[in-house]
From TrEMBL:
Coiled-coil ranges per UniProt: none
GO molecular function: methyltransferase activity
PANTHER family in the cross-refs: TRANS-ACONITATE 2-METHYLTRANSFERASE, TRANS-ACONITATE 2-METHYLTRANSFERASE-RELATED
Protein's organism: uncultured Sulfurovum sp
Protein name per the record: Methylase involved in ubiquinone/menaquinone biosynthesis
Keyword Acyltransferase: no
CDD domains in the record: AdoMet_MTases (cd02440)
SUPFAM superfamilies per record: S-adenosyl-L-methionine-dependent methyltransferases (SSF53335)
Superkingdom, taxonomy of origin: Bacteria
Assigned keywords, A-Z: Methyltransferase, Transferase, Ubiquinone
GO biological process: methylation
């Protein structure tokens, strides 16, 4: 489906997920990649797998992959998968078997959870076809004024084993430099938000102090990286 209304999404997806960021990331990416093409795409850190379903409402792909570390999330993703979707546990073997296989890779708010971001940049570079893109959003960076609060929450959950990922400190320039060193051309912009930040009496306060702070920081600090793997010389 190429034209859509937010109602179409809200019928299918919980608005307290990262839905609005997924929509914006796909919209921005479609300014650079051909639409409705036979693509193979990857959602790195796919959580419960809904991003690929959202993607299919906005564009199309031949094959969609999602990789995750967390078994429970993978189980949830596999429950709702369609025949053109594959959800797999992260492994180096998978990456070794997929050299120059992907037309586009996405990750929504995953990079701050990765300890060795240099290795991540290299592995994504290796699986992309030449002249292809990796789009990655990042609101969790040290320049974000809410980062210290958010980092505390995420690390607390991790230490209490309520969550399976840690929060690492990166500046946007550190990230840019690591991906540049891996061979990418690197671009950065704010992620334009097409829809509304949705209020939740508990979640909004816990994560962001207030709806005002959440909206302000999402508008100002949520970034979209563009990592372009150049043509082969
Ligand atoms: C903050 S969540 C974001 C999930 C999802 N992208 C979204 O937009 O809702 C980050 C996810 O990345 C996953 N992740 C972190 N490192 C990973 C890795 N090396 N391979 C696969 N998934 C990873 C974590 O398990 C976690 O589920």
């Amino acid at each position: 489906m190429n034209s859509f209304h937010i109602r179409d999404f809200f019928d299918k997806f919980d608005p307290h997920t990262n839905l609005i960021f997924w929509i914006s990331m796909v919209k921005e990416s479609l300014k650079l990649i051909p639409k409705n093409q036979e693509k193979t795409i990857l959602d790195f850190g796919c959580g419960d797998g809904k991003f690929l379903h959202l993607y299919k409402m906005m564009d199309d792909f031949k094959e969609g992959y999602g990789v995750e570390l967390d078994d429970k999330l993978l189980e949830a993703a596999n429950k709702i998968k369609t025949s053109d979707m594959n959800y797999l546990k992260y492994s180096q073997e998978f990456f070794n078997s997929k050299k120059e296989s992907f037309d586009v890779v996405y990750s929504q708010e995953v990079m701050y959870t990765i300890k060795d971001l240099k290795a991540h940049a290299k592995e994504i570079f290796a699986i992309l076809k030449p002249d292809s893109y990796y789009f990655a959003t990042m609101g969790s960076h040290i320049q974000n004024p809410l980062w210290s609060l958010r980092r505390e929450e995420i690390r607390k959950d991790y230490n209490e084993e309520k969550s399976h990922y840690f929060a690492y400190d990166y500046s946007l320039d550190e990230v840019a430099s690591m991906f540049y060193e891996a061979g990418f051309e690197v671009g950065l912009k704010r992620l334009p938000l097409d829809y509304f930040m949705v209020y939740h009496p508990k979640l909004t306060r816990e994560f962001s102090n207030s709806l005002y702070d959440l909206t302000k920081t999402a508008e100002e600090e949520k970034m979209l990286f563009l990592f372009w793997k150049p043509y082969k010389k």
